[in-house]
Amino acid sequence: MISLLEARHITKRFGGLQALSEVSLTIRKGEIYGLIGPNGAGKTTFFNVLTGAYTPDGGELVFNGTELPVGSPDQIVAAGIARTFQNIRLFREMTALENVMTGHHIRTRANLFSILWQTRAARMEEDLITERAYELLKYVGIERFADTLARNLSYGDQRRLEIARALATEPQLLALDEPAAGMNATETARLRELVQTIRHDGMTVLLIEHDVKLVMGLCDRIAVLDFGTKIAEDVPAAVQQNEAVITAYLGRPSHPPAAAADTGASV
Length: 267
What we know:
Elements: E1 3-14, E2 17-28, E3 32-36, H1 43-50, E4 58-63, E5 66-67, H2 73-79, E6 81-83, H3 96-102, H4 112-116, H5 120-140, H6 155-167, E7 173-177, H7 185-200, E8 204-208, H8 212-218, E9 221-226, E10 229-234, H9 236-240, H10 243-250, H11 258-262
Parallel strand pairs: 3-8, 3-9, 6-7, 7-8
Antiparallel strand pairs: 1-2, 1-4, 4-5, 9-10
């Protein structure tokens, strides 16, 4: 398969804390790639480096064969990477439709003059954006809430709205930061179906998630971080049996994969 994203020796420090140490990984086009690890492993730090929120202290990110700018979220979105957030970040006093429409701004062509004077081209583009936003609400299954304020949506529907807004930027890589956090079993099952649909329709997905069962059942390949270092990268079945991964999660080695389930944890 063709590589879409290559992270090469990514390093990030916060004062004396080494949050990421020489992390390298490759995400292939069309796959669902999982990134997991215990709390404090560096998952969100990597996510923030990838999406421009943090500037790395070393290494490079290559996307579609071109090095990504660092510390520039708008340029990274323009390059084709969109993200959601661990803590939902919606415009709470805007409707669901308006929230999705904001995601299109990176792809709009109308300039300030045409918008202020409401030229025919600007009006036509606005109509197309509105139509596309509604299609995305339908795609994630919440079109009936198009005119509902974001703050009045259920938690699960807010998560879906955030995904729709990210898709509005027309990304090639959709990066989801713990999308199942706080969801009940039914919401998680619906999320899994949505992510599978997104991949089926040609999108590449990077998934950070604490729900290890969801990751193992959804991802094609998984990388595991521990204390800012990549300790494993493989298909789910192999990762589950990796001694370094088991130790990172359980604090001790364990040979039978079933042993994780006996303790109430799974890897």
